[in-house]
Amino acid sequence: MRHLLPTLKELTRTDMHIYDESSVQEKLLPRPYTDSDINVTRPVFVRSGTGSAYLYCSFLDQPNLPDEKGLPSASSAKSTDPDPFPVTPSFFVPVPLISLSMELAQVIPLFSKSSVLIIKNDRDEWIGYITASDIMNSIHQAYRLMEAYLETTLETVGSALSLIDEEAKVAYWTSGAENIFSIRKTDIIGQPAANFFPPERLQSLKTLYSGESVYRKQHQPRSDLFALINARPVRLDGRIVGAVAAEVDITTEIRLHQELLHMSSKIQHLEKAVARLHPETDPFARIKGSSPIIRQCLETIRKISTTPATVLIMGESGTGKELFAKAIHDLREPETAPFIAINCGAIPASLFESELFGYEKGAFSGADPKGKKGKIELAEGGTLFLDEIGEMPFELQVKLLRVLQERSYFPVGGTRTKQANCRIIAATNQDLPAMITRNQFREDLYYRLNVINLIIPPLRLRKEDIYELTQTFLQEFSLLYNRHIEVIPPELFKHLFEYDWPGNVRELRNVIERLTILTMDGEIKPEYLPDSLTSAKVNVPSEPEQTVANLKSAGKEVAHDPNVTDSLQKSHGPDHLAAVAREAANPSVTFPEQSSGSSYQQQMDAYEARLLLQYLKAAGGNKRTLAKQLGISRATLYNRMNRLGI
Length: 646
What we know:
This protein is 42% helix and 17% strand. By secondary structure, the chain is α/β, with parallel strands linked by helices. A hairpin with a 2-residue loop joins strand 12 and strand 13 (225-236). The longest helix is centred in the middle third of the chain and has 27 residues, at 251-277. The radius of gyration is 44 Å and the shape is elongated. The protein starts with 7 loop residues before the first helix and ends with a helix.
């Protein structure tokens, strides 16, 4: 391969004469000559007694150097021979000895001592010599070939390739760069890159000064130009000596995408307007997720929606309790039925009664002269959603209890009862039984509300839904903030899946909104995540413990829920129902202890495998029955069992 530097063996010459030092003393050296037949001057080398090498020079253009190592000067030698030796000025030049195994980089500095080097083998035998002119010619030829190959390759790539040296001057500029940036090669090569582009927009300068490498990063070298860039520093002997960048013009694509985002935003606004006129037929459209635990919740909602019973929704803050309440309302009420929500923790105690029950005209000073309808009256024929029911003032709880019992109430300042013709759905993130023991919540109201209990799982127990939720929120906020999101790195999802999400879906939504706002170049970076998320550690034991608590609570509610009881008795029989209730209230599943040697996913897989084995045993080994009980297909069950090694 001629573009590579040659080896010493390839450059070795063997047309030489070698004599010992004794030949000099005895004047036996031949007269240097030029073989006119082959036009090659054969050098004469002398080996001293110590093994050193000397070149016998007899060229008219060489200076008369001093003798070395006591060797006599040939020009000063006295001879009575009729043909004196030699007739031209002559001298001896020390020649370095090199090994055939040496690298060319080690050999080149030795030419500062002599233009000829003698090569010896492993047995210290002189096998040839190399000259500085041969080295220079071979290096120059290899350089020309490499330059030709490189230039042809770079011009063939088609991207805009540029190279800046360590002085930040443009050293290379392809025709692709000329086409994209409209700057001729002859105008920019050798000039500082900052003379043509704003320094703060030059990724090549950042790479040169920081050593940062980027791949397919979106940037703007000019205000009117968008490009995808790959950039890497050029290093030599551990030092950055330049930076190379390859850029692809995506200005047209970005503008088209911005127009598409603008049109998508208009379409979204139109869809919202249409949705207000024609409500969504699917009540579960806004509930995102396909995990088994979410599918179980949706199945429970379908059962609940067949009755007008009061529902108590329990779940941590941020789990989306109002979405589930709205789904229940949409399933069991007509399209025109109102859905009235009131946050019991957001209204002062002094105003809560008038907000809930309304008031008659003249009920108190400052009141509307015409009176005001309360939330219960506004919800007539529909649903009243009491969010954060645990925050309701204790003295008003008895009045709400009367509404639930008698389905009637008195407005503030009123003397005639009004009928409460609405369904009640309450929600809380608090432990109501514990509040009852502290005399903070009425026990009788709790039992009136807790006709049917729906537990919304926290996000940490349904992490398989994080991907779908993330994509939904990204689409929403990219349209809202006019951001083009092109790349979502896998390490970002790694952080999302490892986090415990104490704020649940609301916290995830806020994080995705933050990421969308901070992303300006189309690529979401993990460093955009909040510190609280990247530095948090996964608390593995807490999740199973919370799951046990939820199972116990859910098991007790299922056992006392007449609607669910009837359904289970019809499908599985009373014995199966009793077994489910006992198992839920006293689960025998043991959860893995946290181990420093196993990952979070390994521990969760071990737990899931044990849980599946337990339920498979309860189903008598019948996988079809188990799949039906879990609400999944047999193929999904088989795949999951194979993944878990069951």
